[in-house]
Amino acid sequence: MKRRRITEIFPFLLPLRRAQRRFCFYIKMFFDKNHYVKTKNEEPLPFSIYESKSTLLNEKTGFDMKYQENKVFNLHLAAETVNKILIRPEETFSFWQLVRYAEKYEKYKDGLCVINDNLVTVPGGGLCQLSNMLFWLFLHTPLTIIERHPHKIMTFPYPDPDEPEGIDATVSEGWLDLKVKNETNITFQILISFDDSYIYGRILTDMDTDYKYEITNRDKIFYKEHDKIYEQVSIYQQKIDKNTNEIIAESKLYTNLCEIGYSLPKDIEIINKGE
Question: Transmembrane ranges (predicted)?
Answer without folding.
Answer: none
